[in-house]
Design brief:
Largest sheet: 9 strands, mixed
Strand order of the largest sheet: 1-12-13-14-11-15-18-17-16
CATH superfamily of the largest domain: 2,3-Dihydroxybiphenyl 1,2-Dioxygenase, domain 1
Helix content: 10-25%
CATH class of the largest domain: Alpha Beta
Number of strands: 18
CATH topology of the largest domain: 2,3-Dihydroxybiphenyl 1,2-Dioxygenase, domain 1
Radius of gyration: 20 Å
Length: 374
């Protein structure tokens, strides 16, 4: 049975001062918003629900809002080369700029975090249209990533002012919510950002994995999982560790050029059905060696799913004291070997698949070797 180190700091009333309701949305800056929208729509089954652009009076960028259950993605591309979206995309490639958090009061959230050392991206502001008032404030986190605090209680529009509703027939793949978002930071910076989430945002450290937990013959990394007060928001923070060759975190930093969001884990209630649909839609997944499945039944024990189907689809599985989980990881979702997606189904387990780390890393290293980056 998989064990892990956990550290749970006492949660005081002050500790949960942000009272985050949920991840409101994840905003990607991309090179072509229409192409990105089509990718999430046709490959992952996200439903396009909103659009902002020239036709809505937005002269600066094109933007689409997509939803899958409670998960909401926004993809935006600039119309001109001098816009900040274009600059971000030129440096990083397609990637996450904003991880937005829904709160009761954006001014209170901004004041609380900046008083604790957070750096302001923008002060509390209101955007209005016929559908009401959309309130936001924002602070900086690792790299060029922002946390935007969102209050949409008085806004009844599709997403935000300048967005209009759109409808496109969508075939669901069963993805329903964001489970966690992982950030990659430089060597020696993990604890700095762990402290940021604890001191500035009131998060607790949920789990800690070191280079003995996450390593192969060639590379290793360290990771600490930060969680907000109600447990709805989880942000693992990764840093590379010393190894014989270049780790996946170092490869990410080489191509993204700064710290950033490494992957988004999305929950499904039926991973067998979801992965089968995603594969038919052209989504490419990492594969672990077939030997992994020879010992899986003995390691995992009785589960609801069919082991043969798990093996055929290339799904990974792990168990802890609370239950088990099933997970699978895509190959990078853009040309640069940076961001990818995890699909996860939980049966009680609240861990992150420690028992799969070695097999997964060996699979990633094989991809790195093919790219000439190991």
């Amino acid at each position: 049975m998989t064990q892990m180190r956990t550290e749970s700091r006492p949660m005081t009333e002050e500790g949960d001062f942000l009272q985050i309701k949920a991840i409101d949305h994840v905003h990607f800056y991309v090179g072509n918003a229409k192409h990105a929208m089509h990718y999430w729509w046709k490959s992952f089954g996200f439903e396009p629900v909103g659009y902002s652009g020239l036709e809505t009076g937005n002269r600066e960028f094109a933007s689409y809002v997509l939803e899958a259950g409670q998960a909401r993605f926004v993809v935006s591309a600039a119309y001109g080369p001098t816009h900040p979206i274009a600059a971000h995309q030129m440096v990083h490639g397609d990637g996450v700029k904003v991880i937005a958090l829904e709160v009761e009061d954006v001014e209170k959230a901004w004041k609380a975090t900046t008083e604790r050392g957070g750096k302001t991206a923008w002060t509390p502001r209101e955007d209005k249209d016929d559908h009401g008032i959309y309130r936001t404030s924002a602070i900086h986190t690792y790299g060029e990533t922002l946390h935007v605090f969102v209050d949409r209680a008085d806004y009844k529009g599709v997403f935000a002012p300048s967005y209009k509703p759109i409808q496109k027939e969508t075939e669901s793949t069963g993805l329903v919510a964001i489970d966690h978002i992982v950030g990659n930071v430089q060597l020696g910076k993990m604890n700095e950002w762990v402290n940021f989430y604890h001191k500035v945002m009131g998060f607790r450290q949920l789990m800690h994995f070191d280079d003995k937990d996450i390593s192969t013959e060639y590379s290793a990394l360290m990771s600490k999982v930060m969680q907000n007060g109600n447990g709805r928001v989880k942000f693992p923070i990764n840093e590379p560790a010393e190894g014989k060759r270049k780790s996946q975190i170092e490869e990410y930093l080489d191509y993204y050029l700064t710290p950033g969001a490494q992957h988004i884990a999305i929950i499904t209630g039926d991973i067998l059905s979801t992965v089968e649909k995603l594969r038919k839609n052209g989504v490419e997944f990492l594969r672990v060696p077939q030997s992994y499945y020879e010992v899986l039944p003995q390691r995992l024990g009785e589960i609801k799913e069919d082991y043969k189907a798990i093996q055929e689809l290339g799904i990974l599985a792990d168990r802890d004291d609370e239950g088990y989980l099933l997970q699978i990881f895509t190959r990078p979702i853009q040309d640069r070997p940076t961001m990818f997606i995890e699909v996860i189904q939980r049966h009680g387990s609240q861990s992150f698949g420690k028992g799969n780390f070695k097999a997964l890393f060996e699979s990633i290293e094989l991809e790195q070797e093919r790219r000439g980056n190991l």
